[in-house]
Design brief:
With about 350 residues, the protein is an alpha/beta fold. The chain has 2 domains: about 130 residues, 3-Layer(aba) Sandwich (Rossmann fold), CATH 3.40.50; about 190 residues, Rossmann fold (3-Layer(aba) Sandwich), CATH 3.40.50. It is about 35% helix and about 15% strand. The longest helix has 17 residues. The radius of gyration is 21 Å and the shape is globular.
């Protein structure tokens, strides 16, 4: 979702008088809800079984009433392809995926192998299939990812930080310990070592942990272990619990540094000017690094000497997840100190 926001800006620049609508499921709506280049955000529920079919039929009627000229499937999944077809748009653009290509009027090839081409660049190919498209290639400087700050979320986050003992003048470091699958999870002890190193000798620093719902227990363990090693509980190691995407966006902007793996929050961080240290295991920074201006600080930490990278993240051929377990904390700590300087 975050990687689609440069395309929205590109569309608006190419067609300043067009009406541009974005169709999105509920959970990811905050990413585009306040996008200044959109005229409408159509939010749909994520139902299952017959309820999804019922919702999609009602949605199809609504989309057809809009009489769209062009529908672009940025996702490529079964439901997005189905809704693209149901929209009745004269031009329907999507990737060349077996079983779904018949739903489109214009098909864009997508390499099946993993390659060092950024996801934003791959998606920009869809725009070039629009009849009469004249814009050039995607540009980090001109078309960075974009998620607007919600003032209400910022106020909520400021209050939560204060309640957790974080002082207004503290140097705030946000450490995201979650990952969508085990192939992207840096070891818990490595996170502990990083927290301890960043806080030791720096009484003005506070480290805030964030995580997804599936990693809440891990975040609690990491925070508790780090506090025990530091022998403190005065707000220098903070676990705020769960918060929504808008609050995460606000928290990152309030931070002096974001550290995390190749997950959604890393790319939400790219919508701010906050320095970023990205930790890459089976994925390549060339393909998945934050997409924003080179004038902002982005440091990628990865094992570049492994022939098994990138991988399809279905099985580890060595069985030891060495792309992450050999990525020692000292490298991330050094990158963090460099970014803070």
């Amino acid at each position: 979702m975050v990687f689609t926001t440069p395309l929205i800006r590109g569309l608006r620049r190419a067609y300043p008088a067009a009406r541009i609508s974005y169709l999105v499921e509920e959970a990811a709506a905050p990413i585009v809800r306040h996008n200044p280049h959109l005229d409408a955000v159509i939010v749909i529920p994520r139902q299952r079984g017959w309820r999804r079919l019922r919702d999609d039929v009602a949605l199809a009627r609504r989309l057809r009433r809009e009489r769209f000229d062009v529908a672009i499937d940025l996702h490529g999944g079964p439901r997005s392809a189905w809704l693209t077809w149901l929209s009745g748009a004269r031009e329907r653009i999507g990737y060349d995926i077996r079983g779904r290509r018949w739903m489109y009027t214009r098909i864009v090839s997508r390499a099946r192998e993993l390659r060092p081409s950024h996801s934003v660049v791959n998606q920009w190919d869809l725009l070039q299939a629009i009849p009469g498209w004249r814009e050039g290639a995607a540009s980090r400087e001109r078309d960075g990812v974009e998620i607007l700050l919600e003032p209400e979320a910022d106020v909520r986050m400021r209050g939560r930080l204060t309640d957790a003992g974080v002082r207004p003048d503290d140097t705030l470091v946000l450490l995201h310990v979650s990952a969508g699958n085990p192939f992207r999870r840096w070891p818990e002890t490595f996170f502990e070592d990083t927290i301890v190193a960043l806080v030791t000798g720096h009484p003005d620093r506070a480290v805030v942990l964030s995580s997804g719902p599936s990693d809440r227990a891990a975040a609690l363990r990491i925070a508790a272990a780090a506090r025990q090693r530091l022998r403190e509980s005065d707000g220098r190691v903070v676990d705020l619990g769960e918060f929504d995407l808008a609050e995460l966006r606000a928290l990152i902007q309030r931070s002096r540094l974001f550290i995390g793996g190749d997950t959604g929050p890393l790319h939400i961080a790219a919508a701010t000017a906050t320095p970023v240290v990205g930790i890459y295991g089976p994925t390549l920074s060339a393909r998945s690094a934050p997409w924003r201006s080179a004038q902002t600080t982005i440091i990628s930490v990865e094992q570049e000497d492994l022939t098994c990278r990138p991988c399809d993240q279905r099985s580890c051929v060595h069985g030891d997840f060495r792309c992450l377990t050999r990525l020692i904390p000292d490298r991330v700590i050094a990158a963090a100190e460099q970014a803070l300087r």
